[in-house]
Write a structure and sequence with these properties.
By secondary structure, this protein is α/β, with parallel strands linked by helices. It contains 31 helices and 22 strands. Helix content is about 45%, strand content about 10%. The protein has a six-stranded parallel β-sheet. Strands 14-13-12-11-17 form a five-stranded antiparallel β-sheet, with no helix packed on it. It has a four-stranded parallel β-sheet with strand order 18-7-19-20. The chain is elongated and about 115 Å long. One of its GO terms (biological process) is DNA repair.
Length: about 800
């Protein structure tokens, strides 16, 4: 339970406002406990990230780099978009990851002290890209947890040389996004770890770089040269470097005459080696000093992360560890660590943690010595500290603050003021933040501002209007190549949006602010809630009927792929924006309750209907008196384009299709007069087009005469192309050889030979395998009206267009 006012204030700011928060506090003030409780209770959609694999495992989250797919090197600020494409787009985000980011309410960054400024700016750029590019961190609420007086970010000299022109500091507060984010700082002050007032005072002086001579002398009284503790006392040696810790552990292990046992971890799925919580091959002996690296999950709570003990015996699946002060040894079994990833549940649309991999091992590590870095977050009853070789900001403070009391602290070398390294930038930042600690009145105002911001977002139609305006512009600029009812429908919505609804929203929000200024926060302001209910009901009913239904009914068609893609993108965004707003208006017909509003908004965002890749083929889309002919011509054109692997507009443009269906040309001369059709088109496709017109005129009983043969040219006619291909085939050449010799596509040669199959001059078996003939024949017999595309798709593209065409020709010849 929340037990002090700072924790309660932090809890309320996180849950009931959208303020970005830096939650800090001395070692042992309950930051980790707060995080774990927040994960289980908060109603906001939460993702927890941390700068390292071990920190992420401990926090029950994922690493910053894996979630945001950021590079490990320096991330330079964006310069005219060049840096964006190279660094942040090296790994494309999946749609599910983008959906997670877009529906996120709260991002928690644990161990923020180790996060570099450029990494925080990298997070900002990803969030802006997929959410709101005008707001810091894309409008996601940030909770940054950590103690700046503890371990600092690591940066190589060569990386700092690259980043120096852009940053005054590499601590997270040097981030450009952080400086725009209006962050509040809440410091947890009650220390749960230590109760000795003198020791707490000394630790505070070290934190603030104000260590007095008197306090230094008190500390140095704990210096005991050649200190040799009893084994059962359970002292752990904290050193500044890995090599020193490894050397001490190895030396102590070699002193033991007992047999060495090796326990190999079981690693399943994806679990990076750098995130292993203990050794994969754990080598232990009876008598070895060990430290627990995980809290006991059983109701007995026999051990915790950081507890020291000694190996007493090994059973088949259990290691017995005796700890100082315990009457009985602790039976230790293998425990499981999970490597998590966040996923979106497709059915419920909830953000869920998915186990990506696991690590099964005894929760122990050799612990005569560990590094100060690895001790962060742990608590020890007794420790021997060698901090004289401290080389980085915060190391001495971290080491000393691991101890619960002065009595359990031994210095292996005397401390000097040189060993207390504190960064002046950190002290300056902490001082500024301390002067800006929020109070209850700030919470109340922030809560009201958050509720008003949600209403502003809901009733603001500017984002919808922008996408609408862009779609109308596309339609206007490409009026000649876009068919359908879309221009008329969007034009009507655009006028209503600009002239009626946007002014109405502005007027309503002025009323909202006036009413909000007179009383309680929005949720408890009855008069304001009544206005919200009425407005939500009006907007929901009106825009669902007049805008959503109009958008769903509207359709367009174009053979310009760039125009189609751009227009579909705009329509998708409009549908998405409207879908989310309608869901929220529907909810707010009963008033605004933030705890209900956020989940509804997130789920609506994830369930917005997708814009169809292909427009509707309804005949009403075609601006012609003969839509059926338009569809026949269009189908013929598209099949021919697919067969030749060329864009459809290279055969006939949309404008030409409309011209043909409007004019109904009866011969090649009339066909040439259609806008968009030239001599080359008539020569290549004229006969086929005129035949389609003739068939349509006959079926529709139109009294027009169509001459399907092209009018003869004045020059001597050439030998038909299909006859040349036929002669070459009769000479024994294969289809491939003929295609190469004539510089034509194989499908074209197949089409030539199909004509001679239909006349009976060629046997089908000379060109198509009998097994293929049977399969195609059976399908065509059952589906006689199928197009080439239909046949090929139904048979899993197992046959070429040419093979299908030749079987069709053979069936016609047999009739």
């Amino acid at each position: 339970m929340i037990s002090n006012k700072e924790l309660e204030l932090a809890w309320n700011f996180v849950n009931f406002t959208n303020r970005n928060i830096f939650l800090t506090g001395k070692a042992g003030t309950g930051k980790t406990t707060f995080l774990k409780r927040l994960k289980t209770i908060a109603y906001k959609r939460v993702v927890v990230v941390a700068p390292t694999g071990v920190a992420a495992i401990n926090a029950g989250g994922v690493t910053i780099h894996s979630f945001f797919q950021l590079p490990f090197g320096p991330i330079l600020p964006e310069r005219e978009g060049a840096n964006e494409s190279k660094q942040l787009n090296s790994h494309k985000f999946t749609k599910r990851k983008i959906d997670m980011i877009r529906s996120l309410d709260l991002l928690i960054i644990d161990e923020i002290s180790m996060v570099r400024a450029d990494l925080l700016d990298g997070i900002d750029r990803v969030l802006r890209k997929y959410r709101n590019r005008f707001q810091p961190f894309g409008g996601v609420q940030l909770l940054m947890i950590g103690d700046l007086q503890q371990l600092a970010p690591v940066v190589k000299n060569e990386d700092w040389n690259l980043l120096r022109p852009y940053y005054n500091s590499l601590f997270f507060f040097g981030s450009q996004a952080f400086q725009q984010a209006n962050v509040i700082s809440i410091e947890l002050k009650h220390i749960f770890r230590q109760s000795d007032d003198t020791f707490i005072q000394i630790l505070n002086e070290i934190r603030e770089d104000k260590l007095t001579r008197q306090s230094l002398d008190i500390l140095n009284k704990r210096y005991q040269p050649n200190f040799n503790p009893k084994k059962e006392d359970g002292y752990i040696h904290l050193t500044t470097h890995n090599a020193s810790a490894d050397q001490i552990n190895q030396r102590e292990m070699e002193k033991l005459s007992t047999t060495e046992h090796t326990f190999k971890a079981t690693v399943e799925g994806i679990f990076p080696e750098h995130a292993f919580p203990t050794a994969e091959k754990l080598k232990l002996k009876i008598g070895a000093q060990v430290m627990f690296v995980k809290n006991d999950s059983s109701p007995e709570k026999l051990f915790f992360n950081g507890k020291i003990g000694t190996i007493e015996s090994f059973d088949e699946d259990t290691i017995l560890v005796r700890c100082p002060g315990d009457y009985y040894p602790i039976p230790v079994e293998r425990m499981l660590w999970n490597n998590l990833k966040y996923e979106l549940n497709e059915r419920t649309k909830e953000l869920e943690e998915k186990i990506e991999g696991s690590f099964l091992q005894y929760p122990l590590r050799l612990a005569w010595s560990i590094t100060i870095h690895k001790s962060q977050g742990l608590t020890f009853e007794r420790a021997i500290i060698d901090a004289q070789a401290a080389f980085a900001h915060g190391q001495t403070y971290v080491a000393l603050s691991r101890c619960k009391s002065m009595e359990g602290l031994v210095l292996s070398s005397p401390l000097s003021t040189d060993a207390v390294i504190c960064d002046r930038e950190v002290n300056g930042f902490n001082s500024r933040m301390a002067d800006q600690q929020p109070e209850q009145k700030d919470l109340e105002q922030s809560q009201k501002n958050y509720q008003l911001a949600l209403l502003e977002e809901l009733f603001n139609l500017k984002t919808f209007e922008y996408q609408l305006r862009q779609a109308v512009k596309i339609l206007h600029e490409n009026a000649g190549v876009v068919l359908g009812t879309m221009p008329e429908q969007l034009g009507s919505i655009s006028r209503q949006c600009t002239e009626e609804m946007i002014p109405l929203s502005a007027k309503f929000m002025r009323q909202v602010h006036q009413l909000a200024a007179q009383g309680d926060d929005v949720e408890h302001n009855q008069e304001l809630q009544e206005r919200i209910k009425k407005a939500s009901s009006y907007y929901f009913n009106k825009l669902k009927a007049e805008w959503q239904e109009a958008l769903q009914a509207a359709s367009f068609e174009t053979d310009n792929h760039a125009v189609k893609k751009d227009l579909q993108s705009r329509l998708q965004k409009m549908n998405e924006i409207l879908h989310v707003k309608l869901a929220c208006w529907d909810l707010c017909q009963n008033g605004l309750v933030v705890e209900k509003f956020l989940p509804v908004r997130a789920k609506a965002l994830l369930t917005a209907p997708q814009q169809k890749a292909e427009p509707s083929k309804r005949e009403s889309n075609v601006p012609s008196q003969h839509p059926a002919l338009f569809r026949k011509l269009q189908q013929w054109r598209n099949e021919l384009a697919a067969e030749r692997d060329i864009p459809a507009y290279m055969i006939l443009t949309q404008k030409a299709l409309v011209g043909i269906t409007d004019d109904l040309p009866g011969n090649s001369t009339a066909l040439l007069k259609v806008k968009g059709i030239g001599k080359k088109t008539v020569k290549q496709y004229g006969s086929a087009i005129l035949k389609l017109i003739a068939d349509y005129a006959r079926d529709s009983q139109l009294k027009i005469e169509v001459q399907t043969q092209l009018e003869p040219e004045t020059t001597k006619p050439k030998q038909p192309s299909h006859e040349i291909s036929y002669q070459l085939f009769k000479e024994g050449k294969s289809i491939g050889m003929i295609a190469t010799e004539r510089d034509m596509a194989v499908s074209t040669i197949e089409g030539h030979l199909a004509r001679h199959i239909e006349t009976g001059e060629l046997e089908l078996s000379q060109l198509v395998d009998p097994e293929k003939i049977n399969k195609i024949e059976n399908y065509l017999t059952e589906h006689p009206d199928s197009s080439l595309n239909d046949v090929r798709s139904a048979m899993d593209n197992a046959f070429s267009f040419g093979e299908i065409r030749m079987v069709q020709a053979w069936l016609k010849q047999a009739q």
